[in-house]
Write a structure and sequence with these properties.
Chain lengths: 490, 351
């Protein structure tokens, strides 16, 4: 083995630069009529390759990739933000007020039956109470994420469901001077059922069971290859930077607004609970997405199938604020899921606002774009993989007791510049967090195989810190690993 | 001599203060990654004071960066290239095209910029360079150039250019019969707006199984909702002729004198484009639909095996009449006897 001593974190390598053609992934725009609503809330693909897509203004259209023709399947839904295709004549959609099964019963290609699977959750009428999903668990239940309300607005005169009297009294929501009331409401608040929770919904009875708590704006849920559930969330109050959570039943993921929906709720308004207590209870993020550089608003996580390139079994996740899809490299350490994020496609003809992702037959990835009133984009793209084109990148990054093991796709003779810094984010009520306790890390590099290098840090690893690498050999140099657990051995 | 000198001095002062005259504009970052106003005018070489406010209700940080004519695309691209020190620089890219820039303001923040416009005439831009915002969030400063009609102005974002056009399309795009589940005033949040032929329109509330209001004329203006994240209401166009009373726990139909113990909304079928609503009241299935003729609206119910009289919330209105050959009025309620309640129709007409 060759052992290099890295002095003060960088080394200029002499490796033969690989001849890189274009990216192995080709991004193609799907054509739309100019007047069409092109903000996409949900995508799912039928086995024959046709794609169900739901849109901001309430339409569901079916796209035929062979003929490039769109047909309208349903209209008039209320901000649908997810679709699950059961067949060419039946889909399940999550819209603001309910989870709905939409069917074409007479075979004319247009839906005529709209059945509520469940509308047994609250609506205060606040614009921020989006509903995300659905995904289907192995028992056939629907998993849906219910967003909290934002104090960017109040509540409506009439709400649906019972209004929870905890914290700001309901009548104070109706004062003329909302600017004064808003702070008492909490930046994000949950005053009707299951807001800030991920819930499980029985398909036959419509019964809703809260599954996990403590979410803020979980615009993206998905399973990995082992059936573990993940939810992304957005930087904001109680979110120092945007996180990805590994979601387990009964867990609390840090945003206190939904605590009143937990079975052991003791009546204290969420904002009165001491932060030490919240800190004790919460499960931290499996991945932090460094704000401003990696992702500002991550969306739907999705498993990469075989045949879409060298990352099968890892996950991809969309990002709203820039033309980027991010790749997730997760591992389990001491029973805790944690890992790294790295840009997967940057620009390359992609629009910003990758809100939804779905794989179809022949390893085609479809992306649906949106922005609503935030940063993002519009339209839909089709991404295909060409195995003849090679691209160098980090294929895996694993933590060791005293450092990391990085593996590249293609062999590396001598690594080019590698830099590493570590930092953390605050868990706090305030919006976002600066990077704290940031330092550059010194390390030694040891080659352990043609593609693999061990990085041994001079200083011990820090738990609950993010380690941000820049690998000079990679097409996407920045890789950020979130350390929750440190393995006991190498 | 002394007097003359004084006059000259006074004249010079006037001249100096005229040169120092400062043109004032206020620009606000508003919802939907937009500046308001999206167009301002200035004179070549004059001093411009811009008071910039971030009133975006969505907690987005914003800045305002004044840039030279013809450089918008370059600055938009540069704003996306985030590097390690971008944050420290308030996400203002390095560029010789920048005339002035504010800091990055969080929601409710404000800052004043004072700078001199260059001497060249042309269309300058102001843009938010926070990553991801610049493609949507910019406005134009017209210096010695006429702004022209906003609907044809390629110097402003499409959303501003199309606002008026979109408003018209949003009103006209509904096919009758047609429907939207959408936020409506005078209804709960699970409202459904339905456009019927013959210019009748109604709002039905899936939260409590209740017809909420009826209007004649154009359908709704949903522009505000469709251009944003759904905050606000679809505005009723036309004339409201009938309205039910407020109350979130007030159901539309009950059996006998007592309020429903349970209500469950089941969904709807589209029957020739008309929604046929299905719901359960105290476990009994009810179907309800409205159809129209030139004359008025037929409001029809079928009820699965009613065992007592059915009371329907149907308050009177000065602008509409409610009648039926089945049952009779009792205050705000229309009461249908048990033996006729399995299927009955009320007629709503404009008075």
């Amino acid at each position: 083995m060759i052992r290099f001593l890295i002095l003060s974190l960088s080394l200029i390598g002499t490796s033969l630069s690989m001849v890189m053609a274009d990216s192995p992934w080709t991004v193609e725009l799907v054509p739309f009529e100019k007047s069409d609503d092109q903000q996409i809330g949900g995508i799912d693909v039928l086995p024959d390759g046709r794609v169900f897509v739901c849109f901001h203004q309430g339409e569901v259209r079916l796209y035929n990739p062979e003929t490039k023709v769109w047909t309208t399947f349903a209209k008039g839904l209320h901000e649908p933000l997810g679709v699950y295709a059961e067949s060419e004549s039946s889909i399940v959609v999550v819209q603001r007020p309910e989870i709905t099964r939409i069917s074409d019963t007479d075979g004319d290609g247009v839906a005529d039956r709209f059945r509520s699977i469940s509308d047994d959750f609250g609506m205060s009428g606040n614009y921020h109470e989006f509903a995300f999903g659905p995904i289907k668990d192995p028992d056939g239940n629907w998993i849906v994420a219910l967003n909290v309300a934002s104090n960017g607005a109040g509540i409506r005169d009439e709400v649906r469901g019972d209004f929870l009297e905890v914290g700001l009294p309901r009548e104070d929501f109706y004062v003329d001077d909302w600017q004064t009331a808003k702070n008492a409401a909490g930046r994000m608040y949950s005053r009707v059922a299951w807001r800030g929770c991920i819930v499980k919904i029985d398909d036959a009875t419509g019964e809703i069971t809260p599954f996990a708590y403590g979410f803020r704006s979980p615009n993206g849920i998905g399973f990995d290859a082992e059936g573990r559930l993940y939810a992304s969330d957005n930087q904001g109050d109680w979110r120092g930077t945007s996180p990805l959570y590994h979601v387990e039943e009964g867990g609390f993921y840090g945003h206190p607004a939904s605590i009143p929906w937990m079975p052991d709720f003791d009546g204290r308004p969420p904002l009165d609970i001491p932060i030490e207590e919240l800190e004790e209870r919460r499960t931290p993020a499996a991945i932090w997405f460094p704000h401003g550089t990696m992702a500002n608003s991550p969306t739907e996580p999705i498993l990469i199938p075989e045949g879409f390139g060298p990352f099968a079994g890892q996950m991809l996740i969309g990002e709203m604020n820039r033309p980027r899809i991010v790749r997730l490299i997760l591992e389990e350490v001491n029973g805790v899921v944690q890992g790294a994020c790295v840009p997967f496609i940057d620009d390359s003809g992609l629009a910003s606002g990758v809100n939804r992702l779905a794989f179809g037959p022949e390893n085609t990835l479809w992306t649906g774009h949106s922005h609503l009133s935030w940063a993002g984009g519009e339209g839909m793209t089709k991404i295909t993989y060409d195995q003849a084109v090679k691209q160098q990148d980090v294929s895996s990054l694993k933590i060791r007791r005293d450092g990391f093991e990085v593996t590249f796709i293609e062999p590396v003779e001598t690594p080019r510049e590698i830099t590493l810094s570590s930092f953390a984010y605050l868990y706090q009520k305030d919006y976002g967090s600066p990077k704290i306790d940031e330092r550059t890390e010194d390390f030694e590099v040891e080659k352990t195989s043609p593609t693999t290098f061990r990085l041994t840090l001079k200083k011990p690893l820090r738990e609950d810190f993010c380690y941000e690498f820049h690998f000079g050999d990679a097409t996407h140099p920045m890789v950020a690993y979130t350390v929750r657990e440190i393995p006991a051995s190498n | 001599m002394i007097l003359t000198a004084g006059v000259i001095a006074a004249a010079l002062m006037v001249t100096a203060s005229a040169e120092e005259k400062i043109h004032y504009s206020a620009i606000t970052a508003v919802e939907g990654l937009q500046f308001d106003p999206v167009r301002i005018k200035a004179r070549a070489g004059e001093k411009l004071r811009i008071a910039f406010f971030n009133e975006d209700p969505n907690d987005q940080p914003h800045n305002i960066v004044i840039i030279k004519p013809g450089t918008l695309e370059e600055i938009q691209a540069a704003s996306m290239a985030v590097t390690g020190d971008s944050q420290a620089k308030g996400f203002v890219p390095e560029s010789e095209h920048i005339i002035a820039a504010s800091g990055l303001l969080n929601a409710d923040g404000s800052e004043e910029l004072l700078f001199a416009m260059p001497e060249e005439k042309g269309v300058y831009h102001y843009v938010c360079t926070f990553p991801g915002h610049a493609l949507l969030m910019y406005g134009a400063i017209y210096v010695g150039v006429s702004p022209g009609s906003i609907t044809d102005d390629l110097n402003v974002p499409a959303v501003a250019r199309n606002a008026e056009k979109e408003r018209k399309e949003a009103i006209l795009s509904v096919e009758r019969p047609g429907m939207y589940r959408i936020f409506m005033e005078d209804a709960g949040p699970a409202a459904i707006a339905v456009a019927l032929p013959h210019e009748f329109n109604y709002c039905w509330d899936a939260g409590n199984g209740r017809l909420r209001h009826l209007w004649i004329g154009d359908f709704v203006d949903a522009t505000g909702l469709w251009r944003s994240n759904g905050n606000g209401f679809a505005k009723v166009l036309g004339e409201k002729i009938w309205q039910s009373q407020p109350g979130e726990k007030q159901y539309g139909l009950q059996f006998g004198e007592s309020s429903p113990k349970s209500f469950s909304y089941l969904g709807y079928d589209l029957v020739e484009g008309h929604p046929l609503f299905h719901y359960l009241v105290d476990g009994k299935e009810i179907s309800e639909t409205l159809t129209s003729s030139l004359d008025g609206v037929a409001w029809t119910f079928t009820i699965d095996d009613p065992d007592v009289e059915v009371r329907l919330l149907a308050p009177t209105s000065e602008k509409a009449s409610i009648s039926s050959d089945t049952g009779a009025r009792d205050g705000d309620w229309w009461v249908v006897p048990q033996e006729a309640a399995s299927s009955f129709t009320l007629t709503l007409k404009k008075s």
